[in-house]
């Protein structure tokens, strides 16, 4: 027997999510059918609103429902530092440790020749433009992950930025090689930011 079309479609939708196979998708679909109507309505509304109301900040690439984002609107933050991360998730991890009060720039990826990702695929052009037009920025902290792609991206950016006379630093290697900022504990992150070295 085939599933009725509405549930087949729901299973199909769940399977589009990362890490969810047929079995999990089927379980989630049947769970959804058993949820009460209000919860399902709320779930559907959240999905649509998250996609519709969230955008990338035109200055830093952070995810936001207002442009510029909350961090860029906050004039109490240190306007002289820009910390460059691969993903919004990394920005969130660094914000959680509550010790860094500068600005950010989100690349939305790393250089990866294998995946065919070049500089034009990342949020790099806006970073360069930002550095050229904002004289308040004195230091760029490269906080890409300690993976080969993260290191290569940091080196690429350092070569690009340093000629402009802006200080370029890299997070200290308290982070294990190959490790992701997203999963680092707060103490490790704190030490990595404090012990950053000039490139
Ligand atoms: Zn922003």
Automatic annotation (TrEMBL):
Keywords noted in UniProt: DNA damage, DNA recombination, DNA repair, Metal-binding, Zinc, Zinc-finger
Single Gene Ontology MF annotation: DNA binding
Residues of the signal peptide: none
GO biological process, one term: DNA repair
Xref: CDD domains: TOPRIM_recR
Keyword Protein transport: no
Domain Toprim, first and last residues per copy: 80-176
Record keyword Repeat present: no
InterPro entries in the cross-refs: DNA_Rcmb_RecR, Rcmb_RecR, Rcmb_RecR_Znf, TOPRIM_dom, TOPRIM_RecR
Pfam families attached to this UniProt entry: RecR_C, RecR_HhH, RecR_ZnF, Toprim_4
SMART domains: TOPRIM (SM00493)
Family: Belongs to the RecR family.
Job of this protein: May play a role in DNA repair. It seems to be involved in an RecBC-independent recombinational process of DNA repair. It may act with RecF and RecO.
Protein name: Recombination protein RecR
Lineage, uppermost ranks: Bacteria, Bacillati, Bacillota, Bacilli, Lactobacillales
